[in-house]
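To the wet lab folks,

You asked to see what we're planning to order before we commit. Fair enough. Below is the target structure as tokens, and below that is the sequence we designed to fit it. If anything looks off to you, flag it before the synthesis order goes out.
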């Protein structure tokens, strides 16, 4: 019959906790989005890293955005996407969509050419598409 050795549990707990630490640094991300120096008023900001991390944030008043949660620290390609039209009740005609103020070049990760760096901790990014 095996005996319960209470003296081993604290050692095992410390080893387990040490093994759980040391993850990659992460940061919170918020800021503003602009095109040629003027604020972008709608749409979404998309961030994609070379390691596969990605985030999407809705662009609000004055170009403000905030990513929910944290992102791994590193370099990200930034691009914007136009707002998604709201669903309409049946039988309602949709108004003509407003022209999105940012050219198509900045609406895809392969052509945007805009990068941002997320650092450990809090990040206040100014993302300007030019």
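Sequence we intend to order:
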């Amino acid at each position: 019959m095996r005996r319960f050795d209470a003296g081993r549990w604290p050692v095992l707990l410390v080893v387990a906790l040490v093994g759980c630490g040391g993850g990659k640094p992460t940061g919170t991300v918020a800021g503003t989005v602009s095109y040629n120096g003027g604020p972008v008023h709608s749409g979404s900001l998309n961030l994609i890293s070379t390691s596969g991390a990605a985030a999407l944030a809705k662009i609000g008043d004055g170009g403000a955005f905030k990513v929910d949660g944290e992102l791994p620290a590193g370099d990200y390609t930034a691009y914007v996407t136009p707002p998604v039209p709201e669903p309409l009740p049946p039988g309602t005609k949709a108004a003509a969509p407003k022209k999105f103020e940012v050219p198509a070049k900045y609406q895809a990760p392969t052509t945007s050419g805009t990068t941002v760096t997320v650092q450990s901790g809090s990040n206040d990014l100014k993302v300007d598409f030019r």
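Structural context that might help your review: The beta strands are 26-35, 38-39, 44-49, 54-58, 64-66, 71-72, 74-81, 114-118, 121-129. The mean pLDDT is 85.

Thanks,
Computational group
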